Amino acid sequence: MAKVATEKNAVAIKSRANSEYPLTRDQLVEFYRLMYLSRRTDDREIVLKRQQKIFFQVSCAGHEALLVAAGMAMRPGYDWFFPYYRDRAICLALGNTVEEQLLQAVGAADDPASGGRQMPSHWSSRKLNIVSPSSSTATQCLHAVGCAEAGRYFSRHPEAAAKHDGDYREFKDVKFHGDEVVYVSIGEGSTSQGEFWESLNTASNGKLPVVYVVEDNGYAISTPVEVNTPGGNISRLVANFPNFHFAEIDGTDPIASYEAMVEAVEYCRAGKGPALVHGHVIRPYSHSLSDDERLYRPASEIEADALRDPISRMQMWLLREGILDADAINRLERQVDDEVQRAADRAVMAKLPTPDSILRNLYSDDLTPMDARFASKPAATADTSERTMADLINCCLKDEMRRDERIVVFGEDVADATRDEPLRQGKVKGKGGVFKLTAGLQAEFGSDRVWNSPLAEANIVGRAIGMAVRGLKPVVEIQFFDYIWPAMHQLRNELALVRWRSNGGFSCPLVVRVPIGGYLTGGSIYHSQSGESIFTHTPGVRIVMPSNALDAIGLLRTAIRCDDPVMFLEHKRLYRETYGRAVYPGPDYCIPFGKAKIVRPGKDLTVITYGAVVPRALQAAQKIHRDKGIDVELIDLRSLSPYDWEAIAESVRKTNRVIVAHEDMRSWGYGAELAARISDELFHDLDAPVRRVASMDVFVAYQPLLEDVILPQPDDLYKAMDDLAAF
Ligand SMILES: Cc1ncc(C[n+]2csc(CCOP(=O)(O)OP(=O)(O)O)c2C)c(N)n1
Questions:
Q1: Which ligand 1 atom minimizes the distance to the CA of 137?
Q2: CA distances (Å), origin 29, targets 103, 185, 725
Q3: Which atom in ligand 1 lies closest to the alpha carbon of residue 193?
Q4: The ligand 1 atom nearest the CA atom of 86
Q5: What is the pTM of this model?
Q6: Which of the pair, 180 or 15, is modelled with greater confidence?
Q7: Probe target for ligand 1 pocket from 188, 221, 286, with the most ligand atoms within 8 Å of CB
Q8: Rounded CA separation 71/204 (Å)
Q9: Which residue among 90, 137, 192 is best mutated to probe the pocket of ligand 1, counting the most ligand atoms within 8 A of its Cβ?
């Protein structure tokens, strides 16, 4: 472990008399009580695990001083907290009870953090503003940043926080004070993750009130600090980030920890910028109960750590300073032991969740995007010109931003101009996205509602999640579907899961707009990808993919107004096509999710598709009707998750023959699922096998000749229709 100045007197705790922020006698006793409570709760969980009454254990042992200090320096239910799994002690200090924590450990129905869904030590409390974490290391750093941005936004736009009936705002209470601070913690090993650095970028640039606490116990499971941190000291690496307050301390010293935390929190609360407190702590109980550190650490190192154990050090210190005598310490410890025992007794008797709870809070129970309120007819408007999909998406964003001040838009190059002086002076026109879908938004709504993100996709989605948790409605853009992968962790392990894993305690309804797909003539591998089935395979997130301008504006409006996270896949080849242009249908036109559209009714066979294959299939259907009289029913799904099974079933019962067609690769794709379900549930209605038309199982090549062969073309659809009709 790196040597720090405070370690020179490693075993001695900083004297109370020398402290700049002296704690009262009662506060010191409470400090010790919380530390001891945390340790004994870990000890109890270890016993329960050995008795097989719980199924996992990861402890806070050795981190208690730093974390109780953090809890005492901050305001529960006022500040916001993004803790990680080591953070039992701060959660107890904020007001989480031992019983609540043990209810999670046993997986009880009444586990208030997750309803039996998350492992122990995955804290969550709406009342205390402790936001449900995942087990993924470092993702929470971006949520904390987004949460801080949202607090600032609401303090500058207080009217945006108002309740509003009819959309997600009806169900999303906003709390803000203007000077709240956001806590986020992380182990030193996890600082290797890009998301940590992506968050420092934005916290620093935005001077955001985020207190980072790096809990440096020297190991990430068995991997020592120097593997994750060049030079072995994270403080040295981050020291040049502008606007930060930094402190490096012995995190096993409660007084030094408290001082550092108070200073850091004061700095953030005053609006000066973010802070990072790097606390050197110990890890006396191995990584978790599934790990035995004696396999990779010599006994001498473990013994040296033991001398720094914060519990025994603080106990000695209280005695030495004359704050508690031995009897008083014994009494306090007995009371804590009784409290833990009683909580454990109740937890092991708690009722367990029933299978009917499994799907609860996967999506919003309050307002689904399938709701009838989203079914409307296009309104007559003065402008009767036919507009492109790109135009109408842009109109929708403007309409909704005028209507709802909680909407913010950010992503790579989506702003008109980051340096906005020339824009305001009318000297430049502005960019507004590489496809121009967000053109004019910054000019109309200002730079605090529309801005360019750093070139970092996880940064975009992670911050949006933190904002949405607080009640903002981010409508963010991933520049190309091909580059969505750095955000995959945030999309799959965070966005889709916040509501379910917190059993409805938190939610993050937001929209991720993603230009997708090929047929670009030269788009090549990295500008032509599809891959929607990877996301439809992720429960908790809604996926839509319009094929024309009217559906795009209607579905996007529903995506924005509904209470679920939505991935809005925009086929870039369709942005400016002649096919599917439409007259602007007014500022309230919505389409409910899960409703397919019959593009062409027919009686001989059904083609189920979506996106850019819709116009190609229509072309093939019209031709085969002209050529051979084969009458194809063409269904545009529009919404991929949920999808309209009733429309599919009704059509297949009528035509008895079906092709599922899509642009994405054939194997393991969206069509495989539909084909399987049709074969399973509609077997007796079929006169022929279910056919698929899709791209080859390969990426899209640059040379147009190859691209044409790789992607499904009208001729491929024609041939499949012809074959199936003849079967
Ligand atoms: C993204 C990710 N990769 C791997 C893991 C598995 N894992 C869980 S904890 C951990 C070590 C974390 O070490 P550190 O950040 O130092 O925190 P500590 O556990 O020591 O407090 C690893 C590798 C994970 N949870 N998430």
A1: 26
A2: 27, 25, 82
A3: 1
A4: 21
A5: 0.97
A6: 180
A7: 221
A8: 23
A9: 137
Tokens 């790990």 sit on residue: 291
Q: 298 CA to middle of ligand 1, Å? A: 21
Q: Please state, in angstroms and rounded to a whole number, the distance separating the CA atoms of residues 112 and 98.
A: 12
Where is 299: in which H helix or E strand? Answer: helix 299-306
229-253: per-residue pLDDT in tens? 999 999 999 999 999 999 999 999 9
Report how far ligand 1's centroid is from the alpha carbon of 220 (Å).
Answer: 6
CA distance 630 to 635: 16
Angstrom distance (rounded) from CA 69 to CA 211: 13
Closest ligand 1 atom number to CA of residue 216: 16
Ligand 1 mean position to 221 CA, how many Å?
7
Nearest CA to ligand 1 atom 24: 136
* 369 prior amide bond cis, ω within 30: no
Instruction: Look up residue 239 and give its two tokens.
Output: 């020291």
Torsion angle defined by CA atoms of residues 327, 333, 334 and 337, in that order, rounded to the nearest 10 degrees: -170
Say how far apart CA 503 and CA 176 lie, in whole Å.
Answer: 23
Residue 251 CA to residue 280 CA, distance in Å, equals 5
54-82 b/e with 16+ CB inside 10 Å = b? bebbbbbbbbbbbbbbbbbbbbbeebbbb
Distances (CA, A) of 217 to 287, 302, 370, 491, 637: 10, 12, 48, 30, 52
Amino acid (1-letter code) at residue 130: I
Ligand 1 pocket, residue 187 CB under 6 Å: yes
Active site residue: 527, 537, 571, 662, which one? 527
177 is catalytic: no
The owner of tokens 């080849």 is 573
Residue 139 makes CB contacts below 8 A (sequence gap 6+) with 193, 195, 458, 462, 489, 490, 493, 494
Task: Read off the pLDDT of residues 675-710 as tens digits, 9 standing for 90 and up.
Answer: 999 999 999 999 999 999 999 999 999 999 999 999
* Cα 425 to averaged position of ligand 1 atoms, centre (Å): 50
3-state percent helix, strand, coil for the chain, nearest multiple of 5: 45, 15, 40
Q: Quote the mean pLDDT of the chain.
A: 96
